Recover the amino acids of this structure.
């Protein structure tokens, strides 16, 4: 049943506790948005701000003043989450939100497919045109990972240097991440890799002494980590290397006592089979648009 009649307001620091309660309730669907909100909250409170800066969140409240929906803009990334909010009203509030005078142009729109479809309609009405669109299955794992046997000849390298990992990270970004209308930038890739090595969990493997595969986390919310950056060199595919590397990464995450989530392109059937083999189950459809 569609939710109607929400009152929308701009989030303030005094709303943060209620926002976090809402995010935790729906966390498996919102790891990326929650991760960015945590960063935003810490940055805002750390500077003593009492008003939104370049990152904003609009809250949809019911008559009891409970959060039922939100729009969160982190830089140029828009995260919509409407639950069962009525589509036409959600589209109208999105148009209002992106036209706020302090808003930067949206570069990326991402979230559950239903919510993104509503927001992309609003963006289209405001003159935005989709350059690239990717549809994913959102998958979740809360049970212990099913650890496969280690492929013979595979070696896991503890604390690899950035120069060891960079070729795989660059290949991953060019093959899986960079939209067709964008250009790969080595400096941005290296900067992102340094952040991963400093802040995230990463498993790196060699096969026969040659760099073969990597997997890392790329976001952390309250009780869940999100996996991304999974890449196996083409010549080493089909040997169970990717399955084992991902499983070892999940094992590390689960030692922290948290759940694991990821999203995988719907047409990537080999990867989907790998994740299902490890125990992941689909919980929804996820979409990312680039403008």
């Amino acid at each position: 049943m569609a939710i109607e009649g929400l009152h929308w307001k701009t989030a303030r620091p005094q709303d943060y506790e209620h926002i976090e309660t809402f995010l935790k309730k729906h966390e498996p669907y919102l790891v990326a948005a929650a991760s960015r909100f945590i960063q935003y909250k810490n940055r805002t409170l750390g500077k003593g701000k009492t008003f939104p800066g370049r990152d904003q969140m609009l809250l949809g409240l019911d008559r009891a003043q409970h959060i039922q929906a939100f729009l969160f803009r982190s830089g140029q990334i828009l995260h919509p989450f409407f639950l069962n909010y009525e589509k036409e009203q959600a589209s109208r509030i999105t148009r209002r939100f992106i036209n706020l005078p302090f808003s930067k142009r949206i570069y990326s729109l991402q979230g559950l497919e239903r919510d993104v479809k509503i927001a992309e309609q609003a963006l289209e009405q405001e003159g935005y045109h989709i350059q690239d669109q990717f549809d994913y299955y959102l998958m979740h794992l809360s049970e212990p990972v099913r650890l496969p046997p280690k492929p013979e000849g595979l070696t896991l390298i503890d604390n690899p240097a950035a120069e060891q990992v960079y070729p795989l990270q660059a290949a991953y970004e060019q093959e899986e991440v960079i939209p067709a209308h964008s250009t790969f930038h080595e400096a941005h890739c290296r900067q992102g890799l340094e952040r991963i090595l400093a802040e995230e969990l990463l498993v790196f493997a060699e096969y026969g002494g040659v760099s073969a595969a990597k997997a890392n986390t790329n976001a952390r919310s309250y009780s869940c980590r999100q996996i991304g950056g999974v890449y196996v060199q083409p010549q080493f595919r089909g040997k169970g290397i990717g399955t084992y590397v991902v499983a070892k990464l999940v094992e590390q995450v689960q030692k922290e006592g948290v759940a694991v989530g990821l999203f995988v392109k719907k047409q990537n059937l080999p990867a989907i089979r790998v994740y299902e083999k490890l125990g992941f189950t689909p919980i929804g459809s996820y979409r990312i648009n680039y403008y």
The radius of gyration is 20 Å. Residues 139 and 172 are 20 Å apart (CA to CA). Helices lie at 16-25, 31-46, 87-98, 113-125, 162-177, 186-199, 241-255, 269-278. The chain is about 35% helix and 30% strand.
